[in-house]
Write a structure and sequence with these properties.
Immunoglobulin-like; 6-stranded mixed sheet; 20 strands; PIH1_N; alpha+beta; about 325 residues; PIH1D1/2/3_CS-like; PIH1 domain-containing protein 1; single chain; globular; PIH1/Kintoun_subfamily; 7-stranded mixed sheet
Amino acid sequence: FCIKAFKKDTEEKFFINLCQTDGIPPPRDITEDELIRILNDGEPNAFRIPMSITQPRPTLDKSNQGCQVCDIAINTKFYDKIESGGLLREFLISVLFDGVENKYNVVLDETNFRILKNKKVMDKLIPHNIQNRDVKQVIESYPHQSAEDRALLSELDNPQPLGSVGQQARKPLIEEIGDAGTVKTVKNETNSSRTTTPVQINNAEAGISSSSGSATAVPYVPDPTKVAISQAAMKKPESKLFREPPAGKAKRLIGEFLLPECVSSSEITLDVGEDRILLEARKKGYLLDVFVDYRIDESKVEAHFDATTKILQVSMPVFAA
């Protein structure tokens, strides 16, 4: 499939063609539960995803505007496993972004991307070879090698490349899961654009009242994948969500989030979409991702962090139903 992304802090498009080949060995077979445990335990060497990343190249999008694209190849069996979605695919996408940044210093905006539904490839795939030494490195990293793995290792003494996806030699990048405290946020492909609201410091002595008579709590529906990541690697901050007025048509949502370990607003990232609130304080280990049953007016969102009470208050006007 093809991912449409943007270079961070720009409008420049960047496409990733995720493709498959038998010439790259698969990562060891793990379940989503085991991946969560790995993230939770902070074992960066416990799981690797072998992949080959081509150099970004210029191309034209459907509007005939200039952009860049690269191809990333993974093992066919692993591709089949992640194609339908789920935690492994969301994690893989995060690793793809990391790989492009680490190898070619291209920083992509993780808050603004989507998987294209009607286009599986941008431009034409670039050929590249898979080297024996790289394949061998991956297989030797398996904690439990099968008979097939051992047979393949013996075949790697052959000087010819094991498998070829083309003709241009390039060493595959072996991506490792990052430290649990720095695991990147999982994205939702249906929420491709969000407005980032800067957090402002409010040094008022008075705290935020959570028992106001003009607001009543409303339920939210969490994203199951994001919840899995937040449970694995982050702390979910205490939060309350209210609507104003309490009866009739809602005009505004008020969110209150307790972040006791945060010292200033500079540690907080708040992304508000039309129906989604994503709050991160990565260095302090906080992550909250919620969906609401209202259409938020993103252009009028305001946020204030009280350094005394450690409460972030977010005011979110909503469109009339």
